[in-house]
Amino acid sequence: MKVRKSLIQEIETKVFLYENKKEEYILVAVPSLEWSFSFTYEKFGERLIDEMTLSLQKVTKLTEEECEVLALKIDQWTKEM
């Protein structure tokens, strides 16, 4: 599991990234936002960013721009794993 830090609404927040290589999926969790999201390796790409952004908007009180920025960061971090 990897832990990354991100500024969300000017507050440093921990983002947890877990990769299961055997079953080929990634789990992302942001406890302070009470949000988590999982996806398979096959979902990497533009559609994944859109899905994460929509999920963040539904569950959190973040703006659309903040959700998109966080989704882009998560996408980048997961590609580095």
Automatic annotation (TrEMBL):
Domain of life: Bacteria
Lineage of the organism: Bacteria, Bacillati, Bacillota, Bacilli, Bacillales
Name this polypeptide is given: YueH family protein
A UniProt-annotated Pfam family: YueH
